[in-house]
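Protocol step 4 of 5: obtain the predicted structure for the target chain.
Materials: sequence only (see below). No template structures provided, no constraints applied. The aim of this step is simply to have a reference model before the mutagenesis design in step 5. Sequence pasted as it appears in the construct record:
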Amino acid sequence: MDKIINKIKKKIGNHIAAEKAYIKKLVFPLKLFPIKLFIYFIYYPIKIAFKLLLAILSLLWDTISYPFRGLKNFIKAIFISAGVLYMIVSLFVIVDYLSKEYGYIGKFICSFGVDNNLEEKVVRIVGGYSEGSGFFISKKQVLTNFHVIADEPSPKIIFPDGRFTTPTSIIGDESADLALLNISEEYPGLVLEFLDPLVLYPNEKLISAGYPLGTEITGKATVTEGKYIGVRESKHYPVRYIHTDIDLVQGMSGGPIIERCGKVVGVNTLSLSGQSLFIASVDILSKIPNLTDQNITKIQVDPSISPEEAVRAFYVYLKARRMEDGFNLLSEEYLKKTDFDEWTGRFTDILDVEVYLSEPYENTKDTAFVKFSTKNWNDGEVDYHFYEGTWQTTLENGMYKMLRSNIKEVESPSWDWYYN
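Step 4 output (structure tokens):
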């Protein structure tokens, strides 16, 4: 054992001594050191390159001459050549496939998990007149189609986990079919980014998401794939459209369409016979700064006019989730038996309220007869309830307020209930 250790030490010592001698020869005399260093920087790269060239030529010669050294070598060369040719052809096929599926090879790398990530970021947009889909473009803004929220002053935004909220304000552009819903809470984890500039490849796979048939079908957003066909535009429309072969259905309007790396390239807007159009992301970005509330339906109620208008205002406030305004329409007498938390707790699942009738009750001056329905969100499904009855009001500080009610639920009303 000692002999082996001594031998190792001797070899190490010889190696160190050789290195010292080499460094000493390189450095001294000092006046020649810069010249030596310059020559070595030129000499060694040339030397290495020359040896590499000789090795390549030698390998090339061996490769060319190998099949002619014997019959066995010739047969082996045929099989090897066939294998190499197969690998080259396979590589071209793979590159062609990736180009068609992902646009270019780089998108293949970033595409894993995009589908699952997308279905967790698309929200439902639910109102009394229409339903659709939407997605966050900033931590407090949800984008959707204008036709999804048309005539609806207070649509609800339902998150994938079942929670919902009401926008504090809405702006849009009816001609461009775009609407932006502003909320008070922040959801930075749900934000989707736009692809800017918009660069897509022929037949590139795109992914769309939305809620088909709205709340009629439960569960997560539906994710579908299709091919990019081209960009379409018309002088009759102020935006350009991404044309795909994706087959959308009602309820998916307002949802995003993304490329394989998860960037938004458009908004679901129109589908016909298996062909769909999506508002192009570049036009969305240019339109957003100019969106206004000009054509947005506003809530217009005045509880001071009459008892029936006060009752209508009361349910409109519930519809809009303006709970403080609704609570302020409760009379002093009514407030003796409730407080804000208890009262608002009765309506936590209400998505929408539709008032069909609010009129004076018989010959009374302080009571209104009302018919209305509620759309409730329970365990990921919508329930509809129908009610009718009376609200007695009282005039306080120039405003009619809710005093006592006699409201009953109507089971499965017939069609004439809505009109009589």
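Step 4 remarks: The longest strand covers residues 381-396. The chain has ten helices and 17 strands.
Proceed to step 5.
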